[in-house]
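pasting Efflux transporter periplasmic adaptor subunit for the record, 372 residues
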Amino acid sequence: MQQWLAQVSKKKFYYVLTATIIGVSIAGGVIWGNRGQSEPAVEEMPVARTAVISAAKNVQDYTYSGEVRGRYESQLAFQVNGKIAKRNVQLGSAVNAGDVLMQIDAKDVQQTVNSNSAQVYSAESQLKLAESNLNRYRHLHETGAVSRMTYDQYATAYDAAVALVRQTSAQYAQGVNQLDYTFLQADKPGVISNIAAEIGQVVSAGQTIVTVVQDGEREVEISVPENRIAELSKATQIKVTFWALAERTVDGKVREIAPMADPATRTFKVRISLLNPPQEMKLGMTASVNLINNNAQQAITIPLSAIYQNGNTPSVWVVQENVLALRPVKLGKYGDNTVQVIGGLQQGERIVVAGVHKFREGQTVRINGEQL
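structre below
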């Protein structure tokens, strides 16, 4: 009996222990389940560095280096071949029209003139003989002593003698001209700016020997790249300064644009006329030409950091009521860490200017920024 009671007591103990363990497990599961249910996550609103767009007047300003030149420059050359025998000028020499600048050795040309002169004398002698024969045979023909055919032969010989005199006279005149061409003369008053040959040098006809800058108007020559030629006509002001003449500024205007680019530099030669040139200005002085265009359209310039490159399409984040919207834009000229926007944005709009790759479409942000 006692053994049975002991067994019953053990069973009750096991039942109670089992029930207790199950109850504790259920309670623990409930508690753990309540702990596993996390509270709804609250997304932190990021701060976006932004700026308000303001269109500024785009004042274009370009400066080119140039050189003071004469408006009219004569590149003189001999009209005959030969060896230079005499030089009468130096660089910077002032010359007048008709002054002899250089001279070619004229010995060969002089011999040609002498030969032509002798041929003229010979032709004139033959003409006198032909004229005497013609007069004699005309009288004989009139008296019937000779035939008409004989008279015509002497008439033809006379005509040939006349033509020969004309031919030799023309050759003599040409030789005299060639003799004159051995003198290189100035055609206008001016200043010698370049000498390309020296005494003893053999030169050919047409080879540039001396450059004469004619007296009169002075101007500045600059070289302009081909992508800036169109902007010359838009320039509202042209200011010219000189390195050797401090604090002297002269107004200028475009007078001439070369029709073709220089084959070596691929730039266009442009001549700038000076409206009130200073008297101290000299040929060859270094000048700076400043082209200013105040009538350029207003342009929007934003930092490069504001550009969000989406494939091949540049875009910017536009903030509207603290919500981001990605908008494609059309870009213009690039500057120093800036870029010009020529389409897609309006004045007064707010854009993100930093950290553009960490935002997403439709995201709400807190703004922080200033006006561009």
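Confidence is low (pLDDT under 50) at residues 4-8, 36-40.
The first strand starts at residue 47 and ends at 52.
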